[in-house]
User: Fold DDE Tnp4 domain-containing protein from Apostasia shenzhenica.
Amino acid sequence: MVAVNFDRQFNYIGTGLEGSAADMRILRCACERGDFTVPDGKYYLVDSGYANTQKFISPYRGLKYHLGEFGPKAHRNYTGPEEMFNHRHAQLRNTVERTFGIWKKRFPILKNMKSFSFDVQADIVMTCAIIHNYIARFHLTDAYLHVDVDSEEEPCGITQSVDENIFEEMISVGNSNKGALLRTQIKNEMWLMRVTTLNL
Assistant:
């Protein structure tokens, strides 16, 4: 699991759990151990494999989400505020996919590590993330950071079934009722701004 900022740097990287572990399980473990925290009043954007809480905002399910589904700007009509929210969410989350693309292009070893033990693989991932962050912070002219690199990751869709009720108890991950209120507030403010702009 990783958390990426808009400068394409890793804020958090968790290694040591198998790739087959469920997204929410990994997130819960990171939060409960105290490895990964969300500052008060802040939140991360996550894909629909995660429960929506006030700390982790996910897209609306059952609506268009991936950037390619929305078409060119000139022909874009949203069916409602939820679809527009999903589009804006996907645009922002695309930073994660682009960061993965840069990372894998810079460190080809990340694409094929099966010959290494699990512990060594975890160390390689962490080391590559640290080096990537160093380059991103101190070598601002780095070519990889200024090229639009497509990620080879699969689009982030619903990766597992999420029972949001079981996450009500998980204070560390947040509360789904508070998450729904926050997401609705953000959606409504974005929609109002769009409607106001169109009416000018």
Q: What stands out?
A: Residues 151-171 have pLDDT under 50 and may be disordered. The first strand starts at residue 2 and ends at 4. The helical segments are 23-33, 81-106, 118-138, 176-198.
